[in-house]
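[job 4417] fold queue: 2 targets
>>> target A
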Amino acid sequence: MKLAAAMGVLLAATAPAASADWSQTQPVTVTTRDYEFSPNRLVFKHGIAYRLHIDNPGKEQHEFTAPEFFKAAEIRDPTVLNADKTEVEVPPGRAKDVEFVARRPGHYPLRCSDHDWAGMTGEIIVE
Protein backbone atom coordinates (compact mmCIF):
# COMPACT_ATOMS: atom_id res chain seq x y z
CA MET A 1 0.00 0.00 0.00
CA LYS A 2 2.87 2.40 0.73
CA LEU A 3 4.28 1.84 -2.77
CA ALA A 4 0.89 2.63 -4.32
CA ALA A 5 0.64 5.86 -2.30
CA ALA A 6 4.17 6.87 -3.30
CA MET A 7 3.39 6.17 -6.96
CA GLY A 8 0.26 8.33 -6.67
CA VAL A 9 2.31 11.23 -5.33
CA LEU A 10 4.89 10.77 -8.11
CA LEU A 11 2.21 10.70 -10.80
CA ALA A 12 0.50 13.76 -9.35
CA ALA A 13 3.81 15.65 -9.34
CA THR A 14 4.54 14.86 -12.98
CA ALA A 15 1.04 14.98 -14.47
CA PRO A 16 0.07 17.99 -16.59
CA ALA A 17 -1.83 20.74 -14.82
CA ALA A 18 -5.32 19.82 -15.96
CA SER A 19 -6.82 23.02 -14.57
CA ALA A 20 -4.53 25.45 -16.42
CA ASP A 21 -6.55 28.45 -17.60
CA TRP A 22 -4.57 29.51 -20.65
CA SER A 23 -6.89 32.49 -21.20
CA GLN A 24 -5.52 34.00 -17.96
CA THR A 25 -1.77 33.77 -18.71
CA GLN A 26 0.40 36.25 -16.85
CA PRO A 27 2.82 38.05 -19.23
CA VAL A 28 6.55 38.18 -18.45
CA THR A 29 9.19 39.59 -20.81
CA VAL A 30 12.87 38.73 -20.92
CA THR A 31 15.22 40.58 -23.25
CA THR A 32 18.35 38.83 -24.49
CA ARG A 33 20.91 41.56 -24.87
CA ASP A 34 24.37 40.73 -26.04
CA TYR A 35 25.70 38.51 -23.26
CA GLU A 36 22.97 39.06 -20.67
CA PHE A 37 19.35 38.28 -19.85
CA SER A 38 17.31 41.23 -18.61
CA PRO A 39 16.09 40.43 -16.05
CA ASN A 40 18.38 37.52 -15.21
CA ARG A 41 16.30 36.37 -12.23
CA LEU A 42 12.76 35.21 -12.95
CA VAL A 43 10.27 34.32 -10.21
CA PHE A 44 7.09 32.37 -10.95
CA LYS A 45 4.39 30.78 -8.80
CA HIS A 46 3.69 27.13 -9.42
CA GLY A 47 0.25 26.31 -10.80
CA ILE A 48 -0.14 29.71 -12.56
CA ALA A 49 -0.19 30.02 -16.36
CA TYR A 50 2.45 32.38 -17.80
CA ARG A 51 3.36 33.68 -21.24
CA LEU A 52 7.11 34.22 -21.32
CA HIS A 53 8.01 36.61 -24.14
CA ILE A 54 11.70 36.25 -25.04
CA ASP A 55 12.86 39.22 -27.12
CA ASN A 56 16.18 39.34 -28.98
CA PRO A 57 16.81 42.81 -30.41
CA GLY A 58 20.53 42.05 -30.84
CA LYS A 59 22.63 40.90 -33.77
CA GLU A 60 23.41 37.38 -32.51
CA GLN A 61 21.22 34.34 -31.89
CA HIS A 62 20.59 33.56 -28.24
CA GLU A 63 19.22 30.52 -26.47
CA PHE A 64 17.06 30.50 -23.36
CA THR A 65 18.49 27.24 -22.01
CA ALA A 66 16.79 25.80 -18.91
CA PRO A 67 16.45 22.00 -19.29
CA GLU A 68 15.51 21.27 -15.68
CA PHE A 69 12.88 24.01 -15.70
CA PHE A 70 11.30 22.89 -18.98
CA LYS A 71 11.22 19.30 -17.73
CA ALA A 72 9.38 20.44 -14.58
CA ALA A 73 6.81 22.58 -16.43
CA GLU A 74 3.77 21.99 -18.57
CA ILE A 75 4.54 23.68 -21.89
CA ARG A 76 1.39 24.56 -23.81
CA ASP A 77 3.08 24.28 -27.24
CA PRO A 78 6.24 22.16 -26.92
CA THR A 79 7.17 22.88 -30.56
CA VAL A 80 8.53 26.27 -29.44
CA LEU A 81 11.37 24.34 -27.75
CA ASN A 82 14.30 22.77 -29.56
CA ALA A 83 14.23 19.04 -30.44
CA ASP A 84 15.77 18.09 -27.06
CA LYS A 85 13.14 20.18 -25.19
CA THR A 86 15.92 21.99 -23.32
CA GLU A 87 15.87 25.51 -24.75
CA VAL A 88 14.19 28.17 -26.87
CA GLU A 89 16.31 29.43 -29.76
CA VAL A 90 15.71 33.11 -30.58
CA PRO A 91 17.28 34.45 -33.79
CA PRO A 92 18.53 38.06 -33.91
CA GLY A 93 15.78 40.64 -34.30
CA ARG A 94 13.07 38.13 -33.36
CA ALA A 95 11.03 37.12 -30.34
CA LYS A 96 9.35 33.91 -29.18
CA ASP A 97 6.62 33.19 -26.66
CA VAL A 98 6.47 30.20 -24.33
CA GLU A 99 3.24 29.54 -22.45
CA PHE A 100 3.73 27.32 -19.44
CA VAL A 101 2.62 26.30 -15.98
CA ALA A 102 5.40 25.54 -13.49
CA ARG A 103 4.36 22.33 -11.77
CA ARG A 104 6.68 22.32 -8.76
CA PRO A 105 8.67 24.80 -6.70
CA GLY A 106 12.42 24.94 -7.07
CA HIS A 107 15.48 26.81 -8.31
CA TYR A 108 16.50 26.24 -11.92
CA PRO A 109 19.63 27.45 -13.70
CA LEU A 110 19.24 29.60 -16.83
CA ARG A 111 21.90 30.18 -19.46
CA CYS A 112 22.48 30.96 -23.10
CA SER A 113 24.14 27.81 -24.39
CA ASP A 114 26.26 29.86 -26.84
CA HIS A 115 27.22 32.69 -24.48
CA ASP A 116 27.30 31.32 -20.93
CA TRP A 117 31.09 31.59 -21.07
CA ALA A 118 30.61 35.38 -21.29
CA GLY A 119 28.35 35.46 -18.24
CA MET A 120 24.98 35.14 -19.97
CA THR A 121 23.40 33.23 -17.11
CA GLY A 122 20.56 33.61 -14.66
CA GLU A 123 18.10 31.71 -12.53
CA ILE A 124 14.47 30.74 -12.51
CA ILE A 125 12.73 30.44 -9.16
CA VAL A 126 9.36 28.76 -8.81
CA GLU A 127 7.58 29.45 -5.53
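>>> target B
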Amino acid sequence: MAEKEHVLTETEWAALKLAWGGCAYCLATGTPLQKDCVLAISRGGRYELANVVPSCPSCNASKCNAEVTTWMRRKKLDERRFLTLQAEINHRLNMPPDRPSEP
Protein backbone atom coordinates (compact mmCIF):
# COMPACT_ATOMS: atom_id res chain seq x y z
CA MET A 1 0.00 0.00 0.00
CA ALA A 2 1.41 3.38 -0.97
CA GLU A 3 2.06 5.75 1.89
CA LYS A 4 -0.46 8.60 2.17
CA GLU A 5 0.73 12.18 2.17
CA HIS A 6 -0.30 13.93 5.36
CA VAL A 7 -0.41 17.68 4.99
CA LEU A 8 -2.04 18.92 8.22
CA THR A 9 0.31 21.39 9.88
CA GLU A 10 0.60 22.00 13.62
CA THR A 11 -0.80 25.51 13.04
CA GLU A 12 -3.85 24.06 11.29
CA TRP A 13 -4.31 21.48 14.07
CA ALA A 14 -4.22 24.26 16.69
CA ALA A 15 -6.78 26.26 14.66
CA LEU A 16 -9.07 23.21 14.41
CA LYS A 17 -8.95 22.58 18.15
CA LEU A 18 -9.70 26.24 18.86
CA ALA A 19 -12.55 26.39 16.32
CA TRP A 20 -14.27 23.25 17.62
CA GLY A 21 -13.70 24.04 21.31
CA GLY A 22 -13.68 20.35 22.27
CA CYS A 23 -14.59 17.01 20.77
CA ALA A 24 -16.24 17.54 17.39
CA TYR A 25 -18.53 14.58 18.00
CA CYS A 26 -19.68 14.57 21.63
CA LEU A 27 -18.60 18.15 22.58
CA ALA A 28 -16.48 16.91 25.51
CA THR A 29 -14.04 19.46 26.88
CA GLY A 30 -11.23 19.17 29.39
CA THR A 31 -9.83 16.00 27.84
CA PRO A 32 -6.83 15.58 25.54
CA LEU A 33 -7.95 15.78 21.93
CA GLN A 34 -6.77 13.46 19.20
CA LYS A 35 -6.70 13.97 15.44
CA ASP A 36 -9.51 11.98 13.86
CA CYS A 37 -9.99 11.63 10.12
CA VAL A 38 -13.67 12.04 9.28
CA LEU A 39 -13.05 9.80 6.28
CA ALA A 40 -10.75 7.15 7.75
CA ILE A 41 -7.28 6.61 6.27
CA SER A 42 -8.34 3.01 5.51
CA ARG A 43 -11.18 4.41 3.38
CA GLY A 44 -8.98 6.84 1.43
CA GLY A 45 -8.95 9.80 3.83
CA ARG A 46 -5.90 11.93 4.59
CA TYR A 47 -4.62 13.98 7.49
CA GLU A 48 -5.56 17.31 5.91
CA LEU A 49 -7.47 20.35 7.13
CA ALA A 50 -10.81 19.46 5.51
CA ASN A 51 -10.77 15.86 6.81
CA VAL A 52 -9.49 16.14 10.39
CA VAL A 53 -11.48 17.02 13.49
CA PRO A 54 -10.53 17.00 17.17
CA SER A 55 -11.90 13.96 18.94
CA CYS A 56 -11.87 12.82 22.55
CA PRO A 57 -10.17 9.43 23.04
CA SER A 58 -13.52 7.72 23.64
CA CYS A 59 -15.12 8.91 20.38
CA ASN A 60 -11.93 8.29 18.41
CA ALA A 61 -11.68 4.70 19.61
CA SER A 62 -15.40 4.07 19.15
CA LYS A 63 -15.54 5.51 15.62
CA CYS A 64 -12.41 3.64 14.52
CA ASN A 65 -12.72 3.48 10.71
CA ALA A 66 -16.53 3.61 10.56
CA GLU A 67 -18.36 5.96 8.20
CA VAL A 68 -18.96 9.06 10.31
CA THR A 69 -22.71 9.58 9.81
CA THR A 70 -23.54 5.91 10.31
CA TRP A 71 -21.44 5.88 13.49
CA MET A 72 -23.04 9.10 14.78
CA ARG A 73 -26.54 7.72 14.23
CA ARG A 74 -25.64 4.52 16.07
CA LYS A 75 -24.22 6.55 18.99
CA LYS A 76 -27.24 8.94 18.90
CA LEU A 77 -24.99 11.97 18.39
CA ASP A 78 -26.17 15.15 16.67
CA GLU A 79 -25.18 14.45 13.07
CA ARG A 80 -26.75 17.64 11.69
CA ARG A 81 -24.88 19.85 14.19
CA PHE A 82 -21.61 18.11 13.37
CA LEU A 83 -21.98 18.36 9.58
CA THR A 84 -23.11 21.99 9.70
CA LEU A 85 -20.32 23.05 12.04
CA GLN A 86 -17.73 21.08 10.08
CA ALA A 87 -18.73 22.88 6.87
CA GLU A 88 -18.64 26.29 8.59
CA ILE A 89 -15.25 25.66 10.21
CA ASN A 90 -13.73 24.25 7.03
CA HIS A 91 -14.97 27.25 5.07
CA ARG A 92 -13.62 29.70 7.63
CA LEU A 93 -10.23 28.00 7.99
CA ASN A 94 -9.77 27.54 4.25
CA MET A 95 -10.40 31.23 3.47
CA PRO A 96 -7.30 32.95 2.09
CA PRO A 97 -5.96 35.43 4.69
CA ASP A 98 -6.35 38.42 2.37
CA ARG A 99 -9.98 37.67 1.57
CA PRO A 100 -12.67 38.76 4.06
CA SER A 101 -15.00 36.08 5.33
CA GLU A 102 -18.56 36.14 4.14
CA PRO A 103 -21.30 37.34 6.52
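[job 4417] complete. Note on B: DSSP finds four helices and two strands in the chain.
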